[in-house]
Design a protein that fits this description.
single chain, 296 residues, alpha/beta, D-Maltodextrin-Binding Protein, domain 2, 6-stranded mixed β-sheet, 9 helices, 13 strands, 21% strand, disordered N terminus
């Protein structure tokens, strides 16, 4: 998950109005000719066709620009077949989308994992729930001044996210690569203070996750969230990532969030069906090359 901030301009509600204008003039004289038998049949067919067409619905979904809004853009044609017009409202922070959802300004959002959503509810008194999991954004190790792990020298600096969850994930990834060893059992609460073996005497630059791509020229390596890597256009340079079957993948899949009680609504279910379709999974795999992974 895939964390930047920006002021949100609340979406304007669209008001549709239909007006009927009466036309003046002399009414034609009634005809004595029998009515055509084709007219009623044609009208009946048109009526049946109209009743068979899906009811038009506009669904407003808040999302981070990449990859969430890009993924939503891909499923627009699928939803149009179901009579749903998808309106994507982009946010570049992780607070306003939940506030907008709680306030009813949008119908759903797609930018966060479940632990963040649950923590947000607890701290802000909101009543939001996950309608379903869509993808996992693995943390990846990206080259800065050092091009590869083989070239990593003693005393090198590695930049990592400074928020509790993502920092622990970064350290677990470095442990998987045998660059450090952590205390047993620290798991997703690990910090640099839990490192018990650091053979290369690596230094850690802890910073806001959103800033990590920008500091690559100044550090040897950086562990970066998938969404920020995609946003910076560096996903193709990744050296390695968290595994799809990792503890983090199971815990931090990104979800579609809705107001509690809306999970079963038809438009939300159709949104999930499109996001979890084989067509969308193929799009994610081909576009993001492992930096975004479908979990359905």
């Amino acid at each position: 998950m895939k964390h930047i901030s920006k002021l949100f301009a609340p979406a304007l509600a669209l008001t549709l109005s239909l007006s009927l204008a009466a036309c003046g003039g002399t009414s034609p004289a009634p005809s004595s000719a029998p009515a055509s038998s084709e007219a009623p049949a044609s009208s009946a067919a048109a009526s049946e066709e109209a009743s068979a067409a899906p009811e038009a619905v506009t669904l407003k979904v808040g999302a981070s620009p990449a990859p969430h809004a890009e993924i939503l853009e891909n499923i627009k044609p699928l939803l149009e077949k179901d009579g749903i017009t998808l309106e994507i409202v982009e946010f570049t922070d992780y607070v306003i989308p939940n506030q907008a959802l709680e306030a009813g300004d949008i119908d759903a959002n797609y930018f966060q994992h479940l632990p963040y959503l649950e923590d947000f509810n607890a701290k802000n008194g909101t009543n939001l729930s996950s309608a379903g999991a869509i993808h996992f954004e693995p943390l990846g190790l990206y080259p800065g001044k050092t091009a590869s792990l083989d070239d990593l020298e003693e005393g090198a600096t590695i930049a990592v996210p400074n928020d509790t969850t993502n920092e622990a994930r970064a350290l677990l990834l470095l442990q998987k690569l045998e660059l450090i060893t952590l205390k047993d059992g620290v798991g997703l609460e690990a910090t640099p203070l839990d490192i018990v073996d650091n053979p290369k005497d690596l230094k850690f630059n802890e910073m806001e996750a959103a800033l990590l791509p920008s500091v690559l020229p100044d550090v040897d390596l950086a562990v970066i969230n998938g969404n920020y890597a995609v946003g910076a256009g560096i996903e193709g340079t990744v050296l390695t990532t968290e595994d799809k079957e990792s503890e983090a993948a199971k815990e931090f899949a990104n979800v579609v969030a809705v107001r509690t009680g809306d999970e079963g609504k038809a438009p939300i279910q159709k949104l999930l069906a499109a996001l979890q379709s084989e067509e969308n999974a193929k799009f994610i795999d081909e576009k993001y090359n492992g930096t975004v992974i479908p979990v359905f």
